[in-house]
Write the structure tokens for this entry.
Amino acid sequence: MRYCTSLETFPSVINLRSLKTLNFSDCSNLMKCPEIAKNIVYLNLKGTAIEELPKSTGHLSDLITLDLKDCKRISNLLESICLLKSLVTINLSGCSDITRIPNISGKVRFLYLSETTIEEIPSSIGSLSRLSCLDLTNCKRLKNLPCDVSKLASFEKLILSGCTRITRFPVVSSNIKKLLLDGTKIEEIPSSIEYCFELEELGLQNCTRFHILPSSFWNLVYASLDLKFQSGLAIKM
């Protein structure tokens, strides 16, 4: 049903037992998502006008992907989302009324939260042992991340670009490959960075307060790290 921009209503219940994919992407006038059968695997409500998820969402035990990108009217998710044990991808990018993140399944690998108004990441994120990518681009209210992020053994990509309240370099696992901190207010990189042996890209552009690099950092640069920072900064070693 994607791009059906004139669609405003849909039957309140969809009990189609063989239905695996439901796509209402960019149905910009659709204000309510129907109650759906638990066999759904892919649910895309991107760009709709929904204000909340249906109560049946907590029973979607086979759901792998939940896409709510640019749902500007949705506020916070149901607490029952933690019951979705098959969930791998959650996309809440552009959901500007989202202020907090409930506990989610430990199988989640991709979590997109860019341009939301969350202020903190719960410490329970440390239980997401399979999390590979966390995108927090332009989360202007977000403060520093919990130390529990360092427990994420599968963590490879962290994007904090545009998070203007971030002042402290995040503590991440040694498996991190891409770390983008452009536009944050961090001032220095800790010496522990030398243990991030897998790091391939580090973004520090427009970090106007950044001024300290540990001497051990250059061991990573020589190992083909792609380093990007604003030219003209006075950096101390």
